[in-house]
Amino acid sequence: MVGLEAFWESLEMVHFWIGLGLILAIVEVITVSFFTLPFSLGAFVTSLFAWAGTPTEYQFGIFAVVSVAMLFVIQKTLKQYLLKRKGEEKLSNVHSLVGKVGVVVDPVEGELTRGSVKIGGEVWSAISSQPERLTKGVQVVIDHVEGATVTVVPKQKDAETAS
Questions:
Q1: The pTM of the whole model exceeds 0.90
Q2: CA 129 to CA 126: how far, in whole Å?
């Protein structure tokens, strides 16, 4: 009779671990944090041990060990996968403007007198890194970007004829 009682207890624990695994899996799908996934897998693995008749007190230890191990494995694997860089790092947003050619819309004179430059259809506030006045229609090259202001230099005519 003792063996039958242990069987029913282990069957109840199987349901407990499967239920816990399903709940944690649903939480993982909703949050997509990759934090509850290892615990969900730990619960499913522990349900196999419960089905095999492992005592309840050992099941909690198995759950803890498997969950922590899976936490490290999954976190390390995801970090390597998500942070892997292939090829050259591409510039984005305002940093991609550096080196592009623009046209002066409002005159720019050194760092003190702000003007405007049109770059790819957008008008940007601009200053020049050189003291000479840049008049309307002059082509400039973006030297660097700071906030919403671009620093420009006149486009070299030698480079224009060489290409």
A1: no
A2: 10
Tell me: the pLDDT tens digits for 40-70?
A: 999 999 999 998 989 989 999 999 999 999 9
CA distance 114 to 136: 13
155 in Cβ contact with 101 (< 8 Å): yes
Residue 54's Cβ-count burial label (10 Å; 0-12, 13-18, 19+) is: middle
Strands 122-128 and 149-154 come out as parallel
Sign of the Cα torsion 127, 128, 133, 137 reads negative
Collapsing DSSP to helix, strand or coil, 116 comes out as strand
- Distance, CA of 8 to chain centre: 47
What is the helix (H) or strand (E) element at residue 121, kind and residue range? none
Packing angle of the helix pair 37-51, 2-31 (nearest 10 deg): 160
